[in-house]
Write a structure and sequence with these properties.
The complex is a heterodimer.
Chain A (H helix, E strand, L loop, with lengths): L7 H7 L8 H9 L1 E6 L4 E3 L7 E7 L1 E8 L3 E9 L3 E2 L13 E4 L3 E7 H10 L1 H26 L9
Antiparallel strand pairs in A: 1-8, 2-7, 3-6, 3-8, 4-5, 4-7
Helix pairs in contact in A: 1-2, 3-4
Chain B lengths: L3 H7 L2 E12 L2 E7 L14 E6 L3 E6 L2 E2 L3 E7 L3 H7 L6 E8 L12 E7 L3 H13 L6 E8 L8 H7 L4 E6 L2 E3 L9 E2 L16 E6 L2 H13 L7 E4 L15 E2 L2 E2 L6 E3 H8 L5
Parallel strand pairs in B: 8-9, 8-13, 9-10, 10-12, 13-14
Antiparallel strand pairs in B: 1-2, 1-7, 2-6, 3-4, 3-7, 5-6, 14-17, 15-16
The chains are: A alpha+beta, B alpha/beta.
Bound molecules: flavin-adenine dinucleotide.
């Protein structure tokens, strides 16, 4: 995991997830962010760990997964470039519910959730805008997960 | 009363299975001699045959490959007839009626951007269209093929996919993925097939889309395409509801004013959308 330089403000400003945020809010967010790089096979988060960050994928792919010993691991979702990873930082008990593993070399903007939580308590407009943005992706992903669970393609064909 | 010209459509022609390829535990591809000597009866991508397993029954099955001297059908074993057909060996014969139904319609003059979405066995009816687009890929600005499947083991036509990737962009996703060691068998996406469109913020207005798979999957993919700016008239779906006669007589496949075996199975989303919302249909 190593940081590399770039204007986080500009990256966030161009990102569709943050469109409803004002410049002032984006500056606060950018102040809590840093660029990170993960090799394939390394973890961005581990189930049960404190959720202190969330990530914006700049390049690469991560897998949201859960360990299922001794059978192995179950991947529940993959997320690619420009997707947002993690909302546990925003909701109590602020603990990661799943593992997140880079399945390719992956570059992200890592945003410090603990710092942001404090800022949201002080600045409710920022908190409201972030809540709105996160509930949008949560509802979209919940709907997609429901379809995923339907097994529309029938029984296993292996 | 049956018109004279139509009566031939009731009579199965006996065809010989020339090759059999097992795709996975429950799915096989049968190769048959292409008996359509007349140019007007050459099968088109999206059409289907009524395949008759002697003494068992007859079912509609789409063309999964069309060549001048042979055709192929990919069959999943779900009940008595499909099981009997899937059990046929090279040299065995089966009854064939058709080709029936309408076809996928695409024109490089009208569309520069193509999106194909296949779910599960829905890749089979799309394969002849994909082959054509692969051959004519230079005529198009972008061809994007999205494939969804239950799990990595159920993915169909993996050798073809490798070849298609030389000229068209293919994204694949599975609903369920369990592995012992990382990278064991799947390093592509996990999630419902329409999430493969999440990377697009907008699709070009001249996009033509072709979707085949379970109806729930087709509805959701079509809605996502509309959200991304694709004209619902340019979204084609293949509605493979149960059919019997194949020639618009028996009414088994009636869907509102259409008999899907004749006016379908392919229709555009603009026309189909209101009917897809009627539960009694
Ligand atoms: C135009 C068209 C093209 C088709 N193309 C293919 C193809 O390329 N490959 C292929 O394997 N199958 C295809 N099918 C589906 C195939 O016709 C059915 O699986 C078959 O009729 C099942 O018959 P059976 O006697 O084996 O099973 P049955 O005992 O009749 O049915 C077994 C189970 O399959 C379900 N079923 C039956 N027909 C359908 C259907 N049309 N759609 C969804 N579920 C169904 C039944 O509800 C039941 O649960 C196509 C259907 C249509 C209408």
């Amino acid at each position: 995991m190593k940081p590399f330089g770039s204007s986080i403000f500009q990256l966030l400003e161009k990102h569709p997830f943050f469109v409803s945020l004002s410049k002032e809010h984006l500056k606060i967010l950018a102040g809590c962010g840093k660029n990170l790089h993960f090799q394939a096979g390394t973890f961005l988060a581990r189930e049960g760990d404190p959720a202190a960050h969330f990530f914006v994928i700049r390049k690469g792919r991560v897998s949201v997964e859960i360990a299922n010993p001794p059978a192995g691991t179950i991947a529940v979702q993959s997320l690619d470039e420009s997707e947002i990873v993690g909302w546990s930082w925003l909701y109590p008990p602020h603990v990661w519910q799943f593992d997140v593993c880079a399945t390719q070399e992956t570059s992200v903007i890592s945003l410090d959730g603990e710092c942001l939580r404090e800022k949201c308590e002080q600045n409710h407009e920022l908190g409201f805008q972030l809540m709105k943005a996160f509930s949008r992706i949560m509802t979209r992903r919940l709907a997609a997960t429901r379809l995923q669970l339907l097994q529309v393609y029938g029984a296993s064909h292996d | 009363m049956i018109e004279l010209g139509r009566s031939a459509a009731w009579l199965p022609e006996v065809c010989v299975v020339t090759d059999v390829c097992r795709e996975n535990k429950s799915t096989v591809t049968l190769e048959l001699e292409n008996s359509s000597s007349e140019p007007h009866s050459q099968p088109l991508a999206g059409q289907f045959h009524m395949l008759y397993a002697f003494g068992v029954g007859e079912i509609p099955v789409s063309f999964s490959r069309i060549e001048s001297d042979k055709v192929a059908h990919t069959v999943r074993e779900v009940g008595a007839v499909s099981k009997a057909i899937a059990a046929l060996k090279p040299g065995a014969s089966l009854g064939v009626r058709g080709p029936f139904g309408n076809s996928w319609s695409v024109s490089a003059k009208e569309h520069k951007h193509i999106v194909l979405i296949a779910g599960g066995l829905g890749l089979a009816p799309l394969r002849p269209l994909i082959e054509r687009l692969w051959q004519e890929s230079r005529k198009y600005e972008q061809i994007l093929l999205l494939i969804g499947s239950r799990d990595p083991q159920s993915m169909l036509f993996t050798d073809d996919v490798t070849r298609w990737r030389t000229r068209i962009e293919v994204r694949r996703s599975v609903d369920s993925c369990q592995f012992r060691n990382r990278g064991d068998d799947w390093n592509e996406s996990v999630g419902f097939v329409h999430t493969l469109l999440d990377r697009e913020s907008e699709l070009s207005k001249d996009t033509a889309a072709f979707i085949c798979g379970p109806e729930i999957m087709m509805r959701h993919c079509a809605e996502r395409l509309v959200e991304l700016g694709v004209n619902s008239r340019q979204i084609s779906l293949s509605l493979e509801r149960n059919m019997k006669c194949g020639i618009g007589l028996c009414g088994h496949c009636q869907f509102g004013p259409d008999f899907l075996c004749k006016q379908g199975p392919i229709g555009n989303y603009h026309n189909l959308r209101p009917r897809l919302r009627i539960r009694e249909f």
